[in-house]
Each structure stands twice: as structure tokens, then as C-alpha cells.
Design brief:
Elements: H1 15-37, H2 43-49, H3 54-57, H4 59-71, H5 75-82, H6 84-104, H7 108-122, H8 125-136, H9 142-170, H10 175-178, H11 180-195, H12 209-228, H13 238-260, H14 274-304, H15 309-316, H16 319-333, H17 339-358, H18 366-392, H19 400-438, H20 446-457, H21 462-500
Helix pairs in contact: 1-8, 1-9, 1-11, 4-7, 4-12, 5-6, 5-19, 6-7, 6-8, 6-11, 8-9, 8-19, 9-15, 9-16, 9-18, 12-13, 14-15, 14-18, 14-19, 14-21, 16-18, 17-18, 17-21, 19-21, 20-21
Length: 518
């Protein structure tokens, strides 16, 4: 098999090969990202089939998240050892096989085991798809390549819950895994046929066993802590305290070891480059805030606005409309405009969207709920492409896979933090608002007496009337709490503008794959 010699930059693909290569890589990452969210709405069905509690069923999600988070930062090391094309193709094949095993799992224990395997083999797919896409396009069109990559990562998380809900309702939950088979086969066959002669250079590397073990330890502990924290009341739980200490000590040891090892399993030297660490920080923080709110909105709609899972998905889905239109435009022009300005504009649009959501009330109609989601598509287009371009700016082609692995690890971990923090704050703030709203409700209150009288006229007894009032207060409390979080998130997005301007000025795609400033 022909391989690119060290230092040799492959010519870009052209015409039909370029189109098919982009489609094949996009299908692979669409399938991958879809699987990180598609199971969420199927947990009740899975738990029911296996006769376990929904809490036990959530390990189907946790197991995938933990193993995936562990394998993503290993992408750079694995790419040097096996080559980007072989690694992407093998990962996709194993992902398809593990998906089939998940669907055939006879019990919860086996399903969790197969989800662990699925998460492990899925890790390199997203970073490598990014690296291979950048290899496929002329350097001046790197923004276009990243635009295609971003569109896939935007649509999949929104499609997952919607598709998962439909499959669970109309077929059966194993089909959320079986649908990966045809998609994966197409991705593997086309990718291998186009890219097999474009393999990246490989070299024999010793296995950094200590670094790998410490990575598994601290990332696994952190992910389980974040996933189980709310359920176990965070640091009131001994289990969460122990997991937190293990994660902290493991992380410190990992940093010390990796910075001193001759062949580290994760290339932390990338953080010596200013644009890499600034871009990664802005991407991680922004994605954490975005993803937390993406989880919060459908939760609020389903739990307190009487929306079905399908209708909550419909409210979330239009984020892709303007994103699909604007992302290619951003990609085409990213090399003409200061990346820091584009990112700042994206943060401003995010803040606008979240401010619009602070105006929601319990009477909000579908159009009112959907409009901010539609506008958010513009923010997403201005978020991913400039920041990913900034992260890769000045990096030689052989370091793109490692950079993509590290930045995606930071993004995924921040998403887990964002989800945990947002849902915990939502419940805590709702409890506070509930207490404030009930202060005025007592037997001496005229409005209370009038409300009880009106409900009595409708045939409700005293207990039923009080229960109805309490549910109404709950609905208002959670709505006010959500508005608080939307407002705080808007402020956080505006503050990220200051972060992104710490980067050195880069005019986009021309810097990707070049020497560039640190």
C-alpha cells in the first residue's frame, strides 16, 4: 500500500472522488454522534424489556460516554501507530459490529459491555474524519471542509432523540442500533476505496502503559461522577466524593507523567501553541453552555409543558435549517475574515437566542418556542468552523489528528459538565422559586380563597384543588428557573468574546496545515 512519506503533503481530491469521500466520512461521524444521543429516549423501553429500573438503564448511556471519552484523546497516538485511514476504517467496522451486538444483547449486563466496546472504537472516528477531510481539500478551501464536518456534527445530536423516539414507538429499541449497519457499510466501503492509497505515515511507538492507565482512571472517574452526580446528590454522597478525588489525583499524575514521558500517549505539547489552547478553551466552554441548554429545553417542554418526546424534538430540529445554509458560506469566506471576529459574532447570536428564551412563559406557543431555535442555526455555523480553524491554524498535517482528538475530548467533556451543572441548577433554582411562590398561599390569602372556591365550583375537593395549585406553581417555578439559566448562559457567551480575542490573528484556512505562529 502506498503511504505518504514523512513531510509529504498529499494532493487534494477532485470531482466525484472529493464528493464521495466527503459523504462517506460524514456518514461515519453522523452515525457516531447519533449513537451518543439516540439511546437517551429509549431508556424506559430498554429498562422495561430487561426488567430493571430506569436508573440502572441509564448505564447504557454512561458506559458509552465513559469509554468514548477515554479513547478520543488517544487518537493522535493511535494514528501514528496504525495510520489515519486504517484506523478510521477499522474503527467504523468495529462500530458497526458492536452496534449489531448491542441490538442482540440478551440482558442489561451484556448491553452495557457492548456499549463500552462501541464507545471505545467510536473515539477516533470524529477526530480522524476531520483530519481526513482537511487532507482531501486544497488548503485554501479548508474552511469548506470544516463546514461540511460541522454540519454533520450539528444535525446528528438533534436528530438522535427524534429518531430514537420514533423507532422506539414504532419499531423496537434494538433498531436504534441496527440502523447503523447500512450507514456504516457504505461509509467503510467508500472510504477505503478512495483513501487506501492516501495513508498517513506510521511509526513504531512504545506503549505508554502508565499514561494510558492513568488516563483511563481519571477520565472514567470524572465521567461517572458527572453522570451520576445529580442522582446521588453530588458531594453529599461518599461515592461522588471518592470519584472526584480519584479524578483529581489521577489527572494531576497524568499531567506530570505525560509531560515528562518521551513517548506520551497524549500529545500535551499542543497546548504550548497559543491558538490551540485559546481555541480549545473557547470551543469547550461554548459547547458546554450550548449543550447544557440543548438538554434543558426539551426536558422543560416534556416535564412541565406537556410536550411529547416527538414534539420536543420538532421544537429542537429547526436548528439545522439556517445552519445548513450559513455554514457553507462561513466555510467559503473563513480565510477572508479574522477568525476572532467570526467567533465573537457567533457568541453574540447565541446570547441573543438565549435572551429570547428568557421571554418564554407557560403559555408560549410553538412558533414562539421554535423561533430562537431557527436563529440558533446561524450561531452554530459561526461557532464550529472558525474555532476549529483557529485550533488547527499553523499545525503541520501530521499533527491535525492529535489536535482534533484533544480538542474534541475537551468539547465532549465540557458537554458532560454542562449537562450536569445545568440540570442540577435547574432543579435547585426551581425549588427556590417554588418556595418564594408559595409564601403568599395560606388560608388568610384572598387570592388563594378565590382560587380554591373556583376549583371547588369545578367539582374538585380541597385536596385535589391544593394539588392542582401546587402543580401550577411547579410549572411556574421550573419556567422561572429555566429563564434564570438562559439569562446566565447568555452572559457566559458574551464573556467568551474576551477569551477568543486572546488568540493571535489568523485569516482562516490558509493557516491550516502550514507552519504558522504559536
Amino acid at each position: 500500500m502506498a503511504e505518504a512519506a514523512p513531510g509529504y503533503e498529499l494532493p487534494p481530491l477532485k470531482g466525484g472522488e472529493l464528493a464521495m469521500g466527503t459523504l462517506a466520512l460524514s456518514l461515519g461521524i453522523f452515525m457516531n454522534i447519533l449513537d451518543s444521543s439516540i439511546a437517551n429516549v429509549s431508556i424506559p423501553a430498554i429498562a422495561g424489556d430487561f426488567a430493571v429500573s430506569p436508573n440502572q438503564g441509564t448505564w447504557v448511556i454512561t458506559s458509552f460516554a465513559v469509554s468514548n471519552a477515554i479513547s478520543v484523546p488517544l487518537t493522535g497516538w493511535l494514528t501514528q501507530r496504525f495510520g489515519a485511514v486504517r484506523l478510521f476504517t477499522l474503527s467504523t467496522v468495529l462500530f458497526v459490529l458492536s452496534s449489531v451486538l448491542c441490538g442482540l444483547a440478551p440482558n442489561l449486563g451484556m448491553l452495557i459491555l457492548f456499549r463500552v466496546i462501541q464507545g471505545l472504537v467510536a473515539g477516533p472516528m470524529i477526530p480522524l474524519s476531520q483530519a481526513l477531510l482537511l487532507q482531501s481539500y486544497p488548503r485554501a478551501k479548508a474552511g469548506t471542509a470544516l463546514a461540511f464536518w460541522s454540519m454533520t456534527t450539528l444535525v446528528a445530536p438533534v436528530t438522535g432523540p427524534l429518531l430514537g423516539g420514533w423507532i422506539t414507538d414504532n419499531l423496537s429499541w434494538p433498531w436504534i442500533f441496527y440502523i447503523n449497519v447500512p450507514v456504516g457499510i457504505v461509509s467503510v466501503v467508500v472510504t477505503w476505496n478512495i483513501y487506501k492509497t492516501r495513508e498517513t505515515p506510521t511509526r513504531k511507538l512504545p506503549i505508554d502503559a502508565v499514561g494510558l492507565a492513568s488516563l483511563v482512571l481519571w477520565v472514567g472517574a470524572l465521567q461517572i461522577m458527572l453522570d451520576k452526580g445529580k442522582e446521588l446528590d453530588w458531594f453529599a454522597s461518599t461515592q461522588i466524593v471518592v470519584l472526584g478525588l480519584v479524578a483529581l489525583v489521577g489527572f494531576v499524575f497524568f499531567l506530570i507523567w505525560e509531560l515528562g514521558d518521551e513517548h506520551p500517549v497524549v500529545d500535551l505539547s499542543l497546548f504550548a501553541r497559543r491558538n490551540f489552547w485559546v481555541g480549545t478553551l473557547a470551543l469547550a466552554l461554548g459547547y458546554g453552555v450550548f449543550f447544557g441548554n440543548t438538554v434543558l429545553l426539551p426536558l422543560w417542554l416534556q416535564q412541565h409543558m406537556a410536550y411529547t418526546a416527538t414534539w420536543a424534538g420538532i421544537i429542537m430540529a429547526p436548528v439545522g435549517l439556517l445552519a445548513l445554509v450559513v455554514t457553507p458560506l462561513v466555510g467559503k469566506n473563513v480565510h477572508k475574515v479574522d477568525l476572532r471576529f467570526l467567533s465573537s459574532l457567533g457568541f453574540c447570536v447565541f446570547a441573543l437566542v438565549l435572551w429570547m428564551r428568557t421571554q418564554f412563559n407557560t403559555q408560549a406557543d410553538v412558533v414562539t418556542l421554535i423561533m430562537p431555535t431557527v436563529i440558533q442555526g446561524v450561531a452554530m455555523a459561526l461557532f464550529f468552523v472558525p474555532l476549529v480553524t483557529l485550533i488547527n491554524s499553523g499545525l503541520p498535517p501530521q499533527r491535525i489528528a492529535a489536535a482534533s482528538g484533544l480538542s474534541n475530548f475537551a468539547r465532549i467533556t465540557a458537554g458532560a459538565f454542562g449537562t450536569s451543572i445545568t440540570t442540577t441548577l435547574w432543579e435547585n433554582r426551581a425549588a427556590m422559586h417554588h418556595a418564594e411562590l408559595t409564601e403568599a398561599i395560606n388560608s388568610a390569602s384572598i387570592p388563594t380563597a378565590q382560587a380554591l372556591s373556583g376549583l371547588a365550583n369545578l367539582g374538585l375537593g380541597q385536596g385535589q384543588a391544593m394539588s392542582f395549585i401546587n402543580r401550577s406553581i411547579d410549572q411556574q417555578a421550573y419556567m422561572l428557573s429555566a429563564a434564570d439559566i438562559f439569562a446566565a448562559s447568555a452572559a457566559l457567551f458574551l464573556s467568551l468574546i474576551a477569551v477568543v480575542w486572546l488568540a493571535r490573528p489568523v485569516h482562516g484556512a490558509a493557516a491550516v496545515g502550514g507552519g504558522g505562529a504559536h
